[in-house]
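Deliverable D4.2, example record:
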Amino acid sequence: MKYAIVINKPACKNCQLCVEVCPNKIFFKNEANEVVIRSERAGLCFKCGQCMAVCQSKSVVITGLSYDTDFFELPGLNQSVLEKSYFDLIYTRRAIRNFKDKPVPKELLEKIVEAISFAPPGFPPLKTKIIVVQNTDVIKGSLPHMIRFYDKLLVMMRNPLYRLFIRKDAGEKKFRVMEEHLVPLLKVRMAALKNGTEDTITRNAPAMILFLADKKGEDISTDISIAATYAMLASHALGLGGSIMDLIPPAINKVTELRTVFGIPDDQEVVSSVIIGYPRYKYQRGIKRSLKSVNWI
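Output generated by the structure prediction step:
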């Protein structure tokens, strides 16, 4: 879609920052050292808002974006304070899978949703859709369906013919994860899941966020991964905890009852899920990890 871009010449301070930040180089400096718009590139604008966000005099205006409603002024932050706050946040965050039997207030979930909205998309506009599940009974009621789904999967993985179909449907890389990690874990956990002594799928979480995408739309899995990370960091900053649960989306996508319970439209699929709640335990130390490799060039 083509968006109209206007430069308010009387207000423009000719700082030319819009020229620098526009990812598609729609703005350029002419021979008179003025900022103008490349007509042949105007159609490349996807309303990322970079030019309006950087303009000190609010001289750049794009159709459909308003300085009053679509932007907010950034606070002045001391860089050293910001650095310490960020690293304190990631140093102390843990993947939380044990929760207190305590509901998460809606106002905190709303703050997490707000944080998710700041997750940058690979290509604007945002296409990520979410469903916030704050009803603990709905989550508990979904667990038996998920258990049956994975119990059936274990049976199918023992059948050579079914294995071929599963491999084709999942793709080689996902199938290897299933074969090398998922199936061995399920074999050990299934008895406890079925008799109700363990919940290693939804982890008795009081709240959950599902991340959806159009089945026939473009691949936004990277956008959703970033959004889910924002959700977990926001949860931690709010005194909550969370974890991405890869076991939940496949069950919801394949089981009709689960799609109905969670209100998943027919043209949507669940790409990721984050369980959220108050941590039952307080960690005393972090875990050091090393990347598999780091090359400096």
